[in-house]
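Quick one: co-fold with fe (iii) ion.
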Amino acid sequence: MARITAGVGSSHVPLLGVAHDQGKERDDYFGPIFAGYDWTREWEKQEKPDVVILVYNDHASAFDMRFIPTFAIGCGERYKPADEGWGPRKVPDVIGHPDLAWHIAQSLILDEFDMTIINEMDVDHGLTVPLSMMFGACEAWPTTVIPLAVNVVTYPPPSGNRCWALGEAIARAVESFPEDLNVQIWGTGGMSHQLQGARAGLINPEWDNRFLDLLEAEDDAVRHIPHIEYLRETGSEGIEMVMWLIMRGALGHKVKTLHRHYHVPCSNTAIGHIVLEPNT
Ligand code: DHB
Ligand code: FE
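Sure, here it is.
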């Protein structure tokens, strides 16, 4: 049967896609940011996931104010990098896993999570930057990907509690797929950042690190952090962190931390990254 073998959390800062594509990964500014992914790149080469369920948010590239799915699952064959204003990044197309994706969609919907099913969309930095951070430059991504898009751009985003519960339901869905597959789940987005208004530039390393501590904890207190706390402590865009709870919820109560990285500054925010293993 298919199994979720690990969870990865990562920021998806668009500037890191630019740094990667322009070969600036080891310069003075970006060096300490990318160094925190060296461990993970080596680990991924050994782990060789068959599928990554990649929880991310679209930033008005595929969706806009005309339609705003709270939770959407990509069931398509392939996804192209989106044009985010400077042309699409020159990274490989993302290859889907329609069989597992449709199975997860059916399982989630019968489990009372009313997913939006998407067969065609382009994917932006929310999805392609974490792939570059984890796999570096390549001709083809070394894994298939099931995009799972979450609305964290337009109020109201889903609660942390709902995200955690969705993660639990995803784990049930994966475990009921008969084919032997090594599946990872990634939660991307965050950390604290505000890109607009009077508090633009806000970064809260103390809160971000407490969030990472809570992800490592055996209890599930982190799922109950209310929206207002994310907004107050982590700025208007820090709510992206609720997506990490889908990843965390899928791993069960006890987890083992394999790797953790945090560095400020990174563009207008911090870089946060964690690799967790279910500890059963
Ligand atoms: C920045 C970070 C993000 O997560 C994002 O989606 C857009 C911009 C930034 O730091 O500039
Ligand atoms: Fe973002």
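If it helps, The mean pLDDT is 97.
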